[in-house]
Design brief:
The chain has 435 residues and is an alpha+beta fold. 52% of the residues lie in helices and 17% in strands. The protein is built from 16 helices and ten strands. The chain has helices at residues 19-27, 35-76, 92-100, 143-146, 159-164, 175-181, 218-221, 229-235, 255-266, 275-278, 280-318, 320-328, 333-364, 366-377, 398-424, 428-432, and strands at residues 80-84, 105-120, 123-132, 147-150, 170-174, 188-193, 203-213, 224-228, 244-249, 270-274. Strands 2-3-8-5-7-6 form a six-stranded mixed β-barrel. Mean pLDDT is 82; it is low at 1-17.
């Protein structure tokens, strides 16, 4: 009997170097009569590839969606909002000074927040009117960078100054709100607000569109208008007062610690909320969905792992005679087990590698892929009127990719244990009895 190339020292022993890899990889190259096994092997690789690709793309999109949504919400809103019990804040200057002394605070600005009805010759729409301090608002929000037409400088004129100049004070509208009203730069918009003075007559004032902003978040672009703090105080009868104070932090993840310090520093009839408190249900839902999608899409990998099990079992059954010969030549049960574990591991690692490469490439170029799909099928994947966003964001998190790769490889390796163990338990006498 000829000595196989992996043997050393005759038939008495098997080399400890490489024979498991040699045989394990050789078993993956099917002959004509075992081509069906190769088809199952290909399906196993494809299944793991699809599972890993889907996991990376979906979780990258959801991570990008979460970060994009957070940046847009915090682009208009502060990390911490401080308000006064019982109504408007009277000493907002004092609150701003105390808050600015807290470590980690980057910017502080007062604001007025009120609902009103906006009307023009082109239409009527409900909106939130926000009064902003033109000197400090840029330290907290990104409104100035989001103004696409006009500028925030058009808000500077007070009612008195505008009246003396024979013009109107300015207002900055969201792009969708401007479209609803049918107005553009320089057009007149009338603001109507309820009166709480007991007269029952609403307050009205006319403004000129000084700018149009686009945040990329339909909810804000369609329902928000900005005026100067002084004009808002005059219009809403809040002279010397504000709705509250907005605070921006250097590290938004430390908002809760900063809020406690601010509350301890103010020691008055004030209450505060962080951005997490104001959007808790939204971001909790996103995290829950990410966890659910991870579990659901991992099932694809587990189904592919079942294909690995069936493929290896068929190989073990087909290679029974070869296994018996190897054992008769001195191969140990551990060596036989490693042969089939190597074969299964190569299938799992190959599928995982291909899935990771494809998933990362698609996730990094998701806008191009979505644009191609929209062009082919002539529909909008994310209509801005339905969703919070106007484009599909994506962020590839290396830690998430590593977790997905680790889970995929671990599931693939676990799938090889039972078939490999059955192969190692094969009795060489039974395998060679009828040969």
């Amino acid at each position: 009997m000829a000595v196989p190339p992996f043997c050393k020292g005759g038939l008495g022993g098997i080399s400890e170097v490489g024979y498991e890899w040699f045989i394990g990889l050789r078993y993956m190259r099917a002959k004509r009569r075992t081509s069906f096994i190769s088809v199952i092997t290909f399906i196993s690789v494809a299944g793991i590839t699809v599972g890993v690709t889907a996991l990376i793309i979906v979780l990258s999109v959801m991570t990008g969606f979460e970060e994009d949504l957070r940046s847009k919400i915090l682009g208009i809103n502060a990390h911490i909002t401080v308000m006064e019990f019982g109504g408007a804040m009277k000493d907002y200057d004092g609150v701003m000074k105390k808050a600015a002394r807290i470590e980690g605070v980057e910017g502080v600005t007062p604001f007025i927040y009120a609902q009103a009805l906006l009307s023009s010759k082109g239409g009527v729409a409900g909106a939130v009117v926000r009064g902003i301090d033109l000197e400090t608002f840029s330290s907290v929000m990104v409104l100035k960078e989001k103004i696409k037409e006009g500028s925030a400088d058009g808000l500077k004129k007070t009612f008195r100054e505008a009246s003396m100049a024979g013009t109107l004070p300015g207002v900055v509208l969201g792009r969708e709100l401007a479209r609803s009203l049918g107005v553009w730069l320089g057009d007149e918009v009338k603001v109507v607000a309820p009166s709480f003075s007991g007269s029952g007559l609403p307050r009205t004032a006319s403004f000129k569109v000084a700018g149009v902003f686009e945040l990329g978040m339909f909810e804000y672009d369609s329902s928000m208008a900005f005026v100067s703090l002084q004009n808002a105080q005059t219009f809403f009868k809040l002279e010397g007062q504000a709705t509250g104070v907005e605070i921006k932090l250097k590290d938004l993840d430390k908002a809760e610690e900063a809020r406690k310090e601010i509350d301890a520093s103010l020691q008055g009839p004030y209450w505060s909320r962080t951005w997490m408190d104001m959007n808790k249900s939204l971001f909790s839902a996103i995290k829950l969905e990410k966890a659910a999608m991870f579990i659901i899409l991992t099932l694809i990998i587990m189904v592919a792992a079942l294909n690995i099990i069936s493929s290896l079992i068929m190989v073990v059954m087909e290679k029974g005679r070869e296994i018996a010969v190897l054992k008769s030549l001195g191969a140990t049960s551990g060596g036989i087990m490693r042969i089939f574990m190597i074969e299964g591991a190569v299938i799992g690692i190959s599928g995982t590698f291909l899935g990771a490469v494809i998933g990362v490439l698609v996730a990094l170029n998701i806008e191009t892929v979505v644009g191609f799909i929209e062009k082919i099928f002539h529909f909008k994947v994310l209509p801005p009127s339905v969703y919070y966003i106007d484009k599909l964001p994506s962020k590839v998190d290396p830690a998430v990719v590593l977790i997905i790769v680790g889970v995929s490889v671990a599931v693939s390796l676990l799938a090889t244990v039972y078939p490999s163990w059955k192969a190692s338990r094969l009795d060489p006498v039974e395998g060679l009895r009828y040969e």
